Amino acid sequence: MPPKASAPKSAAAKAAAQKSGDEQSAILRSIGLSAGEEVRFRRADRGRWQLGRISCVERDGSITVHDAHGAARSLRPDRLEVKRPGKRRKLTWQVVTGVAVTLEQLTLF
Length: 109
Fold this sequence. Notes:
By secondary structure, the protein is α+β, with helices and mostly antiparallel strands. It has helices at 11-30, 96-102, and strands spanning 38-42, 49-57, 63-67, 72-75, 80-85, 91-95. The protein has a 6-stranded antiparallel β-sheet.
């Protein structure tokens, strides 16, 4: 028996997918990140850093990252590092939890 062909998405399904993408972008922006941004992480069974790209934020607060091979992983923010300007404006790897706290702009008055 041949597999069923998938039907094209309806306009409502496309709108829902676009809305969820916009919501994900807003969530990522609120913690100082953006979709597609390069991050590095260490897997439990390996000691070397691996590069990946941010995809989205899950319900439990973990961040979905796609590695160089396209495999998706959901990792806690404290296990991810992103490149940000350091004290002397040179790009350095910083933990995501530190970036989320320091990126918020405070009002002066």
